[in-house]
Amino acid sequence: MRVLIQEISNQLLEIQEAKIWLGENFSKKLAMVDETEVFTRPLPNLHSIAEIISHLTIWRKETILKINNGKGSLIDNGEESWLTNDLLIEIGWKKILKEYKDSLLEVIALLENREDSFLVQKYYDNDFKGWHEYRFVLNGMLHHDIYHLGQLGIIIKLLKLN
To answer: What is the pTM of this model?
Structure first.
């Protein structure tokens, strides 16, 4: 049976492009800014849009690693979790956005042939220092996306005020 896996996949896709109860999805938010704005930090202690999108991509790739190998490599406060704006400018917005979208499609593809029983299988999580069921990381990825979607809304409002 694939009811729960399909629901997780649907929710991950919906917050990207579908009409959701929150009102605005990632596509709508990102369409509000141009390529120069995505690298701007509206306040010194806030991340740029590019930093957030890159961060989400890095953690999706971490989830992919966990699904493929049963273990990840990152910890939340690690340097590799947040690439600098300078490095991201070198990479370029188009590539950052493409990797972001591709990483989501890869997660969805990895889940496509799995049954709901996969969700209770365990992987080792370096960040939480222990064994967890895959539903923990997959639901966590959804929560992480929604959290940062809210941050994007604040950053965009501040950018438009300036």
So the answer is: 0.93
